[in-house]
Write a structure and sequence with these properties.
Length: 317
């Protein structure tokens, strides 16, 4: 049997929302990684045969693998915290997809979001939404017309999302795709980069829907700072942006852990090059059809949160 094995066999176990990698103690020669994948059907299995594995393993591989997976699933299911999907009222229409574009300042989010909105005929949402009463306070703060305490302004950014979430859910339920220019992940990354405790930064957005996909436009601070209008608003300083970038990389890992679908995209290409990638990933999500929406859940993410109580630069990548 071992002779005929392909160089790589992959088996996924879907048992919850966590994305774990654990050793398979009982089948060392066959595989040593099992990963639970949040978006697979329960019961499907994914094992990776690593190149350094002993390909000459003999014995009842299937049984030994299944036994070890069963015991692992039992253990991990017992300890796994599972948030419930957000209750979207039953509707005969297939719900729309929630697509978020995130990234550092001047990474080209708004440029790409405009194209995506047109392309999908989607609803366009921008955070911060500066036209509401809360949004106008945020705008005054960002343009340095007012000073607001770091905790208070974080809560304003969150409140600005909460005042619009209900109508986003309604759009999704009507079957309309929604594209957001920034989301809660900006809230977490920017405030955490200021040094406030990470779990506090997440807490005020706990309960909002995890997007069907987050497209993160990754750009180094030097390139970003050469783009138009950089430096006009409060946070547009290179040292701070570097911390924010570091924070976003961490956010990526614990959002993925919680079942979120996050794609990091190189934003240093031309707008057309970036668009090709955006269009492909967004198209995949829309054509596959969105699944249940899960809430952003602090408890579900906690095992993946960096241990540090300090800013993201102190957390290991
Ligand atoms: N913030 C927060 O702290 N907490 C929160 O919860 C939220 C936000 C939601 C304002 O956000 C601030 O709020 C932000 C985070 C914080 N920090 N700051 N400062 P905003 O989204 O309103 O910021 P903005 O004024 O729209 O800027 P932006 O979003 O950073 O820019 P962008 O949308 O990423 O880039 P762009 O407008 O599409 O393009 C910028 C320029 O680059 C423009 O001249 C383009 O023509 C050019 N461009 C675009 N793409 C390219 C490529 N590929 N190559 C070359 N040039 C390009
Ligand atoms: Mg923008």
């Amino acid at each position: 049997m071992a002779k005929n094995l392909p160089p790589s066999i992959q088996v996924f176990i879907a048992h919850g929302i966590a994305d774990n990698i654990v050793p398979v103690e009982d089948a060392p020669g066959i595989a040593n990684i099992i990963s639970a994948h949040p978006r697979r059907q329960p019961g499907t299995v994914h094992v990776e045969l690593l190149p350094q594995c002993d390909h000459n393993y003999r014995g009842d591989a299937t049984n030994s693998l299944l036994e070890s997976m069963q015991s692992w699933m039992k253990k991990s299911t017992e300890s796994c915290y599972k948030p419930r999907p957000l209750p979207l009222p039953v509707s005969s229409t297939r719900r729309g997809a929630l697509i978020v574009v995130e990234g550092l300042d001047r990474s080209g989010k708004s440029t790409q979001v405009e194209r995506l909105v047109q392309h999908l005929q989607a609803r366009h949402v921008k955070f911060p939404e500066r036209t509401t009463a809360i949004g106008s306070m945020i705008n005054a703060y960002l343009t340095r017309q007012s000073d607001i305490n770091d905790h208070a302004v974080h809560l304003l950014f969150s409140a600005n999302r909460w005042e619009i979430i209900e109508s986003i859910l309604q759009s999704l339920q009507r079957g309309q795709n929604v594209v957001c220019d920034r989301y809660a992940f900006s809230g977490i990354a920017y405030t955490w980069a200021k040094g406030l405790p990470l779990d506090w930064c997440i807490g005020s957005d706990a309960g909002i829907p995890i997007p069907d996909v987050t497209l993160f436009l990754d750009l180094d601070e030097k390139t970003a700072s050469a783009r138009a209008a950089y430096g006009e608003e409060r946070y547009e300083k290179r040292a701070f942006q570097e911390k924010v970038r570091h924070a976003f990389y961490q956010v990526e890992s614990f959002v993925q852990y919680a079942g979120g679908h996050w794609i990091r995209i190189d934003a240093s290409g031309t707008p057309d090059q970036v668009w090709q990638t955006i269009q492909r990933h967004a198209g995949n999500v829309v054509s596959h059809g969105p699944m249940a929406l899960y809430p952003l859940d602090l408890e579900a993410m906690r095992p993946a949160l960096p241990w540090t109580k300090e800013g993201p630069e102190k957390a290991s990548l």
